[in-house]
Amino acid sequence: MAPVRIELTRDLVRALALPDVVEIGVEDVDDDLLTLVHDPAFVEAVKAGARGEPDEARGIGTEDTPMFPEMHAAAARTVGSTLAAARWVWSGAGPHAVSVAGGMHHAMPDRASGFCVYNDVAVSIRWLLAQGAERVAYVDLDAHHGDGVERAFWDDPRVLTISVHESGLTLFPGTGFASDVGGSGAEGYAVNVALPARTRGNAWLRAVEAIVAPLLAEFAPDVLVSQHGADSHMGDPMTNLRVSVDHQLAAAALMRDLASAHAGNRWIATGGGGYTVVEVVPRVWAGLTAIAAGAAPDLDAELPRAWVEEVESRLRIAAPQHWSDGLAVELKRFAEGYDPADDVDRTILATRTAVFPLHGLDPSW
């Protein structure tokens, strides 16, 4: 979670000199906004954590979520980043916005979890609902299950949460299986695709398209919110998926296209996990920003030379030279054929079987 991830992404976006990218100012977030999702007692506990007072029952001061002096201010600022993106899109200032600092999807209403203190995504979705949005779709592409956002809207059929992640059998937080479909009155509005470890890029992208595209077409949200944790990458030290930058950016382009087709072209994208801080994260999130601005990077091209030289001068390590990982993207749509011998296809079918009939959809095509 090193802040340098954000700095390197910002610098790469600037080096691209994209004509339609505007940096939006971020306002302070008060407790009233935080308590759209979080218990007031938890907010006070976070403030105490910033003073060095742990509260392990609320996840503060643990190995999972350590304390630090600006804990409340920094976490609230992250919420402010994603709220600024939500305001930008919902006000009509622009169709797309990206909050690379956001995506803290593990934070629960009453506790910090998985490096996440406040849940910027859940707060922003609650804000959108309060502004008049009738349906919000949330798609989580992080390697880890988006459990905190799912929990916040478990009983709310106005919010469709879809998480495509490595199975909880092999990865934190150990949740998010096909049978987890939402609470009473909201059955089918929590959707989980628990992929086997070592799933590769083309199979991962197939799963994303097979689940997300039909559900968004049926749900027709007012706005699409997506989380683009880069930790599904094959080089990430904390996960077991085998996805390339090329495939992650193909998924970002898919989210853009689905927002255009089914969400009134309103799209809010966030960052999330990603622990290959220099080699992967800036390429994924700067590429995401370019896609949101309608200027998808040429994956065969080299990265801007000035950015490469600055990274190597500042950090004294080798910087990536190219956008691409050199792996071909081939989207084989699930509707074109199901392979019962394939682990990923069985995972896709399990999720479609659990959820699609609840939306009047046929899981077999």
Shape: globular
Question: Unreliable stretches, pLDDT < 50, 5 or more residues?
Answer: none
Q: What kind of sheet is the major sheet?
A: 6 strands, parallel
SSE-based structural type: alpha/beta
Q: Count every helix, treating DSSP H or I runs of 4 or more residues as helices.
A: 11
Please give the CATH architecture.
Answer: 3-Layer(aba) Sandwich
The total beta strand count reads 6
The tally of structural domains comes to 1
Radius of gyration: 19 Å
What is the CATH C level class, in words? Answer: Alpha Beta
GO biological process, one term: acetoin catabolic process
GO molecular function: histone deacetylase activity
InterPro entries: AcuC (IPR003085), HDACs (IPR000286), His_deacetylse_dom (IPR023801), His_deacetylse_dom_sf (IPR037138), Ureohydrolase_dom_sf (IPR023696)
Domain Histone deacetylase: 2-290
Please tag this protein with its features.
365 residues; 6-stranded parallel beta sheet; AcuC; Acetoin utilization protein AcuC; Arginase, Chain A; 11 helices; single chain; His_deacetylse_dom_sf
Task: Describe it.
By secondary structure, the protein is an alpha/beta fold. The protein has one domain: Arginase, Chain A (3-Layer(aba) Sandwich), CATH 3.40.800.20. It has helices at residues 4-16, 31-34, 40-50, 71-90, 120-130, 147-152, 201-219, 245-262, 281-292, 305-315, 343-355, and strands at 96-99, 136-140, 159-166, 190-195, 223-227, 267-270. Helix 8 (245-262) links the parallel strand 5 and strand 6 (267-270). The protein is globular. The termini are far apart.
